[in-house]
Amino acid sequence: MLNVTRFFSAASLLFSFTFIAQAQAQNDAQAQAILNRVSRVYQTYSTITSTFSLTTKNSNGGTTVSTGKIWMKGKMYKLDYADQQIYCNGTYIWTYNELDAEVTQENFVYRSNNITPNEIFTIYNRDFRSTYDGPLVRNGKNYDVVLMVPKKATNYSWVKIEVDKSTNKVQRLIQRFKNGTEVTIEVTSFVTNQTLSDAFFKWNQAAHSDVDLVDLTH
């Protein structure tokens, strides 16, 4: 099974761009202009539903590929990935493993050194130094690449995002970890402003009476 925590680090970088421009002096002008355009696009979305592929390349040359789906609304998200379903309503997180017929419930605690999926399209309001890394043509489409290097100590060295020039949407994110692992997330479908109730992001134990609930809240 792929590391779901690593997904949170990489995927949330991709799917969370409700950006309030900060520390512009830390970014070069071209990178900042691109990020501002991306920000304006994502600020118009009330909800996001996206499918994605995730490719992990280890330092030993091994490669794994998986797919998943994520739904987002404000601070809430639901993630279907790596044989797990994860629900977060901004107060609690439920992690459901169908094979084990078990779900764990924990308090949602925001930690500044972690990245959560609801930040996937808003990541660059974090402490990064961003620079323009050049244009890119891939599969007949034109992209701008922005390199983001964290200013604080983290377990990764840098993140690159590829922005579609025609839509100002992030198509791909590459995250390089200090242990040599490289994670690439690519958006395969993207739907916005669907009606998603708050209850959609909360585990319904009454509807899963055959599932053991492990309550780790306090």
Note the overall shape: globular
Strand content: 35-45%
Percent of residues in helical segments? 10-25%
Radius of gyration from CA coordinates = 17 Å
Quick one: how many beta strands? 12
Distance from first to last alpha carbon:
29 Å
Instruction: Return the CATH class.
Output: Mainly Beta
Unreliable parts: 17-25
> What series of H and E elements makes up the topology?
HHEEEEEEEEEEEE
Major beta sheet, specifics? Answer: 12 strands, mixed
The CATH homologous superfamily is named Lipoprotein localisation LolA/LolB/LppX
**Total number of helical segments?**
2
What do you see in this structure?
- This protein has helices at residues 4-14, 29-42, and strands at residues 48-57, 63-73, 76-81, 84-88, 92-97, 102-107, 128-138, 141-150, 156-164, 170-177, 182-192, 212-215.
- The relative contact order is 0.24.
- Mean pLDDT is 83; it is low at 17-25.
- With 218 residues, it is mainly β.
- It has one domain: Lipoprotein localisation LolA/LolB/LppX (outer membrane lipoprotein receptor (LolB), chain A).
- Strands 7-8-9-10-11-1-2-3-4-5-6-12 form a twelve-stranded mixed β-sheet, covered by helices on one side.
Compact summary:
It is built from two helices and twelve strands; from the N terminus they run H-H-E-E-E-E-E-E-E-E-E-E-E-E. It is mainly beta. The chain has one domain (4-215): outer membrane lipoprotein receptor (LolB), chain A (Clam).
